Amino acid sequence: MKITLKDGSVKEYDHAMSVxxxxxxxxxxxxxxxxxxxxxxxxxxxxxxxxxDCSLSILTVSxxxxxxxxxxxxSHILAQAVKRLYPQAxxxxxxxxxxxxxxxxxxxxxxxxxxxxxxxxxxxxIKEGEAIERFTLPREEAVKFMEEKGEPYKVELILDLxxxxxxxxxxxxxxxxxxxxxxxxxxxxIKAFKLTSSSGAYWRGSEKNAMLARIYGxxxxxxxELNEYLEYLANIKNRDHNKLGRDxxxxxxxxxxxxxxxxxxxxxxxxxxxxxxxxxxxxxxRGYMRTKTPLMAKRDLYxxxxxxxxxxxxxxxxxxxxKDDEVFALRPMTCPFQxxxxxxxxxSYRDLPCRYGETSTLFRNxxxxxxxxxxxxRQFTISEGHLIVRPDQIEEEFKGCxxxxxxxxTTLGLEGDVTYRMSKWDPDxxxxxxxxxxxxxxxxxxxxxxxxxxxxxxxxxxxxxxxxGPKLDIQAKxxxxxxxxxxxxxxxxxxxERFDMSFVDKDGTKKRPYxxxxxxxxxxxxxxxWLIEKYEGAFPTWLCPEQVRVLPISEKYHExxxxxxxxxxxxxxxxxxxxxxxxxxxxxxxxxxxxLPYMLVVGQKEEEDGVVSVRSRFNGDEGQRPxxxxxxxxxxxxxxxxxxxxxxxxxxx
Length: 653
Hints:
Residues 264-540 form the Aminoacyl-transfer RNA synthetases class-II family profile domain. By secondary structure, the chain is α+β, with helices and mostly antiparallel strands. Strands 18-23-24-31-28-27-25-26 form an eight-stranded mixed β-sheet. Strands 2-1-7-4-5 form a five-stranded mixed β-sheet. It starts with a strand and ends in a 13-residue tail after the last helix.
């Protein structure tokens, strides 16, 4: 057989060989560093037998799939250590993930002290250097094997596999785990790892199942790479909106109010108000008509839209369907309400497009395990809009929605942090969607052509579409790398029929319009979370809830400080005065910790000359300036929504 290697060279063998044996034949050093193989593009275990002509790559930690195998092996070492220290713990799953690995256990939660003990045990296991062996069992024997070990979650996983399937296991010393692999040849090569945190996680992601204890960790082949990553983790923890947003008093959560129902504090509410006014004004400038619709509706409305069948589990239902004549639900979206705004009068082709915009408060019954700060909540506010358009207007109006979204991202300084995804239906799960395969092909081809004409670079994802149409999802990641949807633009050719929406065309006949569902800035709460993390709480001046703080050096200058603040406020600048009986150095430090854009220090000389001493987070000490000049500059900065960069100096640190 002929084996074509990554560099194009060919090795010939007259008998079957394992991947690791081929690696050894190439180089003993390569075999020592091998983590997995790749045969004709498929990642395989090192123990896999090669018995035909193929292309083969030996994967090391320098390859993403090789690093994944390295980390997956570390997750098994973690599980072995936990079973040694906590024999009663039941094993669930332990995959490698983007930045490391995790393992779920049915066990009481683990403290940091517990993680330290587990780490010490893992080091012992690595030092033992046990060989890792792979073996398989028929399905029935595999079930019996795991039942005897008292591992119910593993039994459940095996029973989910088809009958007749050969089930693979990996054994290292006194520990055996159900696993598809791939794994290293022994535990010995693991050089640098760290258990980073622990949390709760529902079995299989459903709150109907048991809550398990999840341990997160990471692993690298070199200690300096691990240390660099741990330093990065420490930095992002300080940027986590869940921590920073509370430290800056932007939002809070209260147990008696409920999970996923955050309180926006005055500062956080001010930021959202600023964004909301900006978006509403911009949408009006672009021809949107504002609506204000109810926060709830009878189930009849959701039955027409098909949300009752497709989305009821995610809704807050008020009433009992079995007993009550009228059952209501809090709205999870605004679209059906705006359709009835459209239907209040017969529209002609001249009336289209109709662009409706609303600042909508929505309610979605998210699983408690999915809740996170401001990014995943049960009540949120969204810049929602629906465009009712003629077929010949689809491309122009869709482009307009993309242009609005890009304008919002650019203004917020987030345009470089997003990716674009075309979310399509899943033909293997057709019952989840409205319409026929032919209709979906038509509307998806239409969206693809529009995106290509715009020139957007995008990926395609099967199964991520709404049940009524494909969508363009604008995706962003939080500081931990978790991706969420920030803005969506959806193309809908189905719901106009269900709601009997029409327009009178040029020939006098009634036609069905298309509907574009879109957000311009998305969910305000989620956007605020991204902004907190993006700017580490040091927001652009126009978004800051406090833009200027006037700092009198003593009580004698309170009156002049108040006069300066009044001038600022009269020009629409958010200003306060720090009248506390503290030293000026302390006041300056406090203002810096609050991440304020500007501080104006005033004392005798400033009052006599009618000036202020300007300090900013951008340039540090900027010297004395007339109040009017400072007002002109900051007003221009706010008006143009400029995002000023920080010039790093000792003063501005």
